[in-house]
Amino acid sequence: MTTELPSPIHIVGGGLAGSEAAWQIANRGVPVILHEMRGLRMTDAHKTDDLAELVCSNSFRSDDSVSNAVGVLHAEMRLAGSLIMQAADRNQVPAGGALAVDREGFSQAVTHEILQHPLISVVREEISGLPPQEWDNVIVSTGPLTAPSLAESIRAATGADSLSFFDAIAPIVHRDTINMDVAWYQSRYDKVGPGGTGKDYINCPMDRSQYEIFINALMAGDKTVFKDWEHVPYFDGCLPIEVMAERGFETLRHGPMKPMGLTNAHNPTVKAYAVVQLRQDNALGTLYNMVGFQTKLKYGAQTDIFRLIPGLENAEFARLGGLHRNTYINSPVLLDPSLTLKSRPGLRFAGQITGCEGYVESASIGLLAGRFAAAERLGKPTSPPPPTSAFGALLGHITGGHIVSDEESGKRSFQPMNINFGLFPEPEPGSVVTTVDGKRLKGKDKTVAKRRAIAARALNDCRAWLEVAG
Ligand SMILES: Cc1cc2nc3c(=O)[nH]c(=O)nc-3n(C[C@H](O)[C@H](O)[C@H](O)COP(=O)(O)OP(=O)(O)OC[C@H]3O[C@@H](n4cnc5c(N)ncnc54)[C@H](O)[C@@H]3O)c2cc1C
User: Fold this and answer.
1) Residue-by-residue DSSP string for 125-191
2) Distance 352 CA to ligand 1 centre (A)
3) pTM (2 d.p.)
4) Residue of the nearest CA to atom 53 in ligand 1?
């Protein structure tokens, strides 16, 4: 007796996310039709027809699952039977504590596994508009370089403000690394906005000589150059800070570094010459972004220069600033917790287009979207990962954890993000080692102990989730 197969799930885009989603779905007994345009049409960054091509670095970053957030995500993906991690592990090249891969071997291994899977068909074609309605269960995972006609259709369906073609990212700092003996909480003019308290920003003051040193460092700092095809425009209102600094010594202190309406709580009688403001970035309150500090400075230069800011001398950055070509949607507004477009049931997004960043993160969101889509097709409930797991922390950033809009400007503020410990809930107090050999842990040692507790909890909770979710 033959059992009838469920009808297929369509996936648009066979990159890191689409390949992982296809694997997860097919391994649950549901057929997949994977539509990939390369073979007929290239993107500006891809070079081959292989699925899951790595467009730049060959590194999946740290493989340390004990104290590194992306290492925890690797471990969770391995537990969840990830194709991307299997192919990476089999094609590993030496890279110290990082997981780096032979890029061709890696993509060829993914392509081989997908092509030989009896439930997956790969169709080489460009999907040039929103998927047709008769595709009742579909995942769009077309990545940062989504073909223009599809991108335009997504924009038309979701609203002009809902799709970005560039990211203009300001650095994000772990709140517990900001020196509050120097910085203070205050909103400009103590204004209490919707949901605010009048103390919503962290403020870092500068005197004139500190400001001068900072401006000179900005202008001298190493900058990255755009690739020819990126055509990244400089929009008014989101100019890189180093470009603003070049326009005149005073430009920044009349812009994002203006000191007006702020009184230094540690030194109320002395007016700061300039102030750097940081605004809460996630609902957990563990991350703060540097307001108006989008930049093209190289990463090394950013850490050196931003640590010149009083209060940020020991800052740890959850992500550094950047300006790239990148297609991504305003997920916290548009998607539900199972990555489904609220306005069109059955249509999910996955990968970098949802506002995660990086190979591993994109693949892991593909893994979740695949599992959710398969459950839906099989008439089962979609089982979300616990928020304490790396999967859950990343999904939370995309679908809910982020502060949605900027009260001052009213603009959307969702920006792409790598996995990092700031996205996880704080560890339970009793779970963190506080003393070693009778000595209390301080500074970096305390931070590492906290991260270890978060990592251990994530893996435990992920295991428990997978035992139930399968
Ligand atoms: C220039 C550049 C450099 C990068 N460097 C790094 C790096 O060093 N490290 C890192 O971790 N991340 C890097 N990234 C981010 C990286 O692209 C993503 O992390 C990852 O590839 C995203 O996976 P994805 O599956 O979402 O998209 P992709 O891997 O890009 O896959 C999307 C797929 O969809 C296909 N597609 C697009 N439109 C259509 C359509 N209309 N119809 C059919 N198919 C379509 C594309 O051909 C592609 O195969 C870089 C991105 C860019 C643009």
Assistant:
1) ----SSPPTT--SEEE---TT--HHHHHHHHHHH-GGGEEEEEEEPPEEEGGGS-TTT-EE--GGG-
2) 7
3) 0.88
4) 144
